[in-house]
Amino acid sequence: MIAPERQVVALHTFQGVQLYQFLGNSLIDLTWSRESDTTSRCEVTVPSFMESDKVPDIVPWLHWVSVWDDTGQDLYWTGPIQKATFSRRAMSLSARDVSTLGSRTRCPMTKRWDIAWPADIARELWERMVELHGIQIEPIVMPIHPLQYDERYAYEAKADESMVDSMIDDLVRLGLKWTVVSGVPILGRMSRQPVAALGELDFVGEGMSVVRDGGNFANDVLLRGGDNLSHARIPTADLNLQSIVNIDNMFGVSNVDRAVKQHVKYTSKFHDAVSLPGNAILHPEAPLSFEQLIPTTRLVLDAYGMVFQAELTGIDVSCSADGSSVGIRVTGVDDEPTELSVVTGRGSVSGVKGDMGR
Predict the structure, then answer these.
(1) Structure pTM?
(2) Given CA atoms 38, 145, 77, 327 in this order, what sign does their dihedral have?
(3) pLDDT value for 358
(4) Residue 210: left (phi > 0), alpha (psi -120 to 50), or beta?
């Protein structure tokens, strides 16, 4: 089983002092998620325990929700309550993971990084942020993949100039991947080695489909950048589908003619991809565990005689008196993007004071 039929919800202070505990059979509804590059959520509904019209003393931000397995040994999710709703029938709690503190924390330092990977910059911001709020967690920085060795930047932070969450968004535009799992921030991508292979029988209900999308197809590409102009075309049947690639800064393009030829070679092919419904429900016996379901983890999907690699972008867990379910969200992966795709994909970032380190 991926998820136990019953999960336990604890309500406690951020220091860990427990206030209430709700066992699986006392939950009306429980949902929680893991997300890539954004804050995850937890929604809990339990029967009301109001006494003599007195509203329970539950305080947003001060009190936290944690979700455990049915033995109380494995922590699945934890984070501060953002909103509590009380009625005579039920109490509903809406919580977010610890990354939500970034929206309530000004930049805690003034520093310039001459050359650094985005994950290392994010680690320093996280460490200063949780220290400010008195939270005892240590961010995990994943090892740099060899293809990321050139993805270093000069970056500058100024105390109180912006909020931490906007700075993390800047770093995401520079290539940072992050998630929060069981209350711990994980900075950087997981290994590119797939953790499991899934087939059509590993899903409940609507399964996998294969998509052949021609939306980005072009067999005639014109590159325009500054004073540079280059053109390449690949004959493809009787098609003459054209595109223009505009680059303001040609830094990072090693050879203009070679780059546009490489690009048109990629865009003049139709690429098959596997597609799952928006929240594909895993079969209870699918060969996965919660420990493996970390955003950016790789999976192999086998459908219609074709094999694809996919990257996990999030999970959605639901638990009620009727049982539990685990849904996953994935996206296709491309480990060999063209040089022009990489250059044009870099966003404008306020804290960047120089180009990519070499």
Answers:
(1) 0.83
(2) positive
(3) 34
(4) beta
